């Protein structure tokens, strides 16, 4: 009974504090299940769609046949991927608005140092709770001391206690059945402890003992003292933060931080717009997603140590695996990835044998890409993307676990931190298993990504490359005429392409004048044809000169035929290519004349 009466008529402040705690807990329990609530929703849709994001997959699946048709037409019609403009004034209004919004978010982040201030924000919540615990312990000690100081005969007279301390009257009425002390954590329980102790001490007082008003006042003051002290202490705790805020307000704010990617500041000029547009296009012009991607990229570049990586010496063992050579017809630099080089067991072991070696390979690949990107022109009208040629001839295949792990890791990093740097992905010498693999992953690729992909079988690889890259720019190992070292011809010398029909003969004539030295080179992709060259003078009484006797040339004999002829009389050099096979052949040739000297 005593416990019930104490709880019903305790000071109003205590129940309010108890209610506040009770109200906060249900709010937490209601919020916790919210993240897991949407999880069961996709379950009914699993049988109908693959196990990835349902909305994106559905859109991709509907458009998949259309994309495949576009890729096939691109191969036959030699249509290159159409890049969007990087000039801000020429952008559509929604894209222009998205670019402006992204600039505002980046400017605010630079002003607030959000690109570098993350670690400090994580330390603050750890240090705050400790002072609060010390304050609570000090308050409890003070209350216990004051409770001991209350006189034993402080409470007995009912009329006086009813007017000055209502809680004491309830203790007096039920003093025959003293209640058990409640827990000392809640503020209301602290008052109850004082009253019960005073009630027990009151039993030892003689029945005829008169209690003075002073004793009653002392008991009332002793019981009410803790709440008063709390009121004094609480404002002091609130004043401290206000003083810190005023001090912080007086300190001048630091200047905005400067952040650059690939040597280009995020907010500077038109080159910065080109960088920002890459991130926006990678996220379908969703401003918040693009902004988050930029922040993650900046953070990753710091963690990976990109700036110091550029100066590291990681060796040249992989220079034949990945290399840059030539440009496509639109001026994009071309990067070749030759996976067949990993058929070399020693090279494979030195690159992927353990985690340390795979990490070195990843750093080498990122370093190579960073150096290539630094050579691009980030002006709005410049070339800021590249063409990737992936040679899958003799590729180790999906059975090589180490290669697959390293490749997936590299692809994830490139996808997350190097957006929109590829204008075209050309896969040549594609085996059957890779085509099956591509069909399997194709539904998970966006239409924009798939529109950049081109696949060519071994028989069509050279022909496919020539649609996007001029033959003089294509390396000789892929059917072109570009060779390393000092050569008679360079990439500046244009190449003529001719298709020779099956079972047909084709002749090429080079007219020459007196005292001339004619130089030429040619190749037939796949060869297996007959080749011969002769000089026919202009004079009717002249004699035909055999320059190169007719012979059959196979693909294993010569890659490129280089020849020359000097003459002191005018005439022409005639090259004859006889295709006796049932397949058409691609003929490439070029020539130039040099002054004749004895």
From TrEMBL:
Family per similarity comment: Belongs to the patellin family.
Swiss-Prot/TrEMBL GO biological process terms: cell division
SUPFAM superfamilies the UniProt entry points to: CRAL/TRIO domain, CRAL/TRIO N-terminal domain, Supernatant protein factor (SPF), C-terminal domain
Entry's localization field: Cytoplasm; Membrane
Region of interest (Disordered), residue spans: 1-190, 225-257
Keyword annotations of the record: Cell cycle, Cell division, Cytoplasm, Lipid-binding, Membrane, Transport
Polar residues bias locations: 1-10
Biased composition, class Basic and acidic residues, residue ranges: 61-74, 93-103, 115-145
InterPro entries: CRAL-TRIO_dom, CRAL-TRIO_dom_sf, CRAL/TRIO_N_dom, CRAL/TRIO_N_dom_sf, GOLD_dom, GOLD_dom_sf, PATL, PATL1-6_C_GOLD
Name of this chain's protein: Patellin-3
């Amino acid at each position: 009974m005593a416990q019930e009466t104490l709880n019903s008529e305790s000071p109003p402040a205590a129940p309010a504090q108890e209610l506040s705690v009770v109200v906060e807990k249900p709010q937490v329990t209601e919020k916790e299940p919210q993240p897991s609530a949407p999880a069961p929703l996709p379950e009914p849709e699993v049988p109908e769609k693959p196990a990835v994001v349902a909305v994106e997959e559905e859109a991709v699946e509907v458009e998949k046949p259309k994309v495949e048709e576009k890729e096939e037409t691109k191969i036959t019609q030699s249509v290159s991927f159409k890049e969007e403009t990087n000039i801000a004034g020429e952008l559509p209004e929604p894209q222009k608005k998205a670019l402006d919004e992204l600039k505002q978010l980046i400017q605010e982040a630079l002003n607030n140092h959000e690109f570098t201030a993350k670690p400090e924000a994580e330390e603050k919540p750890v240090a705050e709770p400790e002072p609060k615990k010390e304050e609570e312990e000090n308050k409890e000690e003070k209350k216990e001391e004051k409770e001991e100081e209350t006189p034993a005969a402080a409470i007995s007279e009912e009329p006086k206690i009813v007017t000055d301390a209502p809680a004491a009257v309830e203790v007096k009425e039920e003093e025959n059945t003293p209640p058990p002390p409640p827990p000392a954590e809640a503020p209301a329980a602290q008052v109850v402890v004082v009253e019960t102790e005073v009630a027990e001490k009151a039993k030892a007082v003689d029945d005829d003992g008169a209690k003075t008003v002073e004793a009653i006042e002392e008991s009332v003051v002793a019981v009410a003292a803790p709440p008063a002290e709390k009121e004094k202490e609480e404002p002091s705790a609130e004043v401290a933060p206000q003083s810190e805020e005023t001090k912080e307000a007086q300190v001048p704010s630091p200047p905005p931080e400067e952040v650059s990617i690939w040597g280009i500041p995020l907010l500077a000029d038109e080159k910065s717009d080109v960088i920002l547009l890459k991130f926006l296009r990678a996220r379908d012009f969703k401003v918040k997603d693009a902004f988050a991607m930029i922040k993650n990229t900046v953070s990753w570049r710091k963690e990976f140590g990109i700036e110091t990586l550029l100066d590291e010496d990681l060796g040249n063992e992989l220079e034949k695996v990945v290399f840059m050579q030539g440009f496509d017809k639109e001026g994009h630099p071309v990067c070749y990835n030759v996976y067949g080089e990993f058929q070399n067991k020693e090279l494979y072991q030195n690159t992927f044998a353990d985690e340390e070696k795979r990490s070195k390979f990843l750093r080498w690949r990122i370093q190579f890409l960073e150096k290539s990107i630094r050579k691009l022109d980030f002006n709005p009208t410049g070339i800021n993307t590249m063409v990737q040629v992936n040679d899958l001839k003799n590729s180790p295949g999906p059975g090589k676990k180490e290669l697959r792990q390293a490749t997936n890791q590299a692809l994830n990093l490139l996808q997350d931190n190097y957006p929109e740097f590829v204008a075209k992905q050309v896969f040549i010498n594609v085996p059957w298993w890779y085509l099956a693999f591509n069909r399997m992953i194709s539904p998970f690729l966006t239409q924009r990504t798939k529109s950049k992909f081109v696949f060519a079988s071994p028989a069509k690889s050279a022909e496919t490359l020539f649609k996007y890259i001029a033959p003089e720019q294509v390396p000789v190992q892929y059917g072109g005429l570009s060779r390393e070292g000092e050569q008679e011809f360079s990439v500046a010398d244009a190449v003529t392409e001719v298709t020779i029909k099956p079972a047909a003969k084709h002749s090429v004539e080079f007219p020459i004048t007196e005292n001339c030295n004619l130089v030429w080179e040619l190749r037939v992709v796949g060869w297996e044809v007959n080749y011969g060259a002769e000089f026919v003078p202009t004079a009717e009484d002249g004699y035909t000169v055999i320059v190169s006797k007719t012979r059959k040339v196979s693909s294993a004999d010569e890659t490129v035929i280089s020849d020359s002829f000097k003459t002191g009389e005018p005439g022409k050099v005639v090259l004859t290519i006889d295709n006796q096979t049932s397949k058409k052949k691609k003929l490439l040739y070029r020539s130039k004349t040099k002054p004749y000297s004895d």
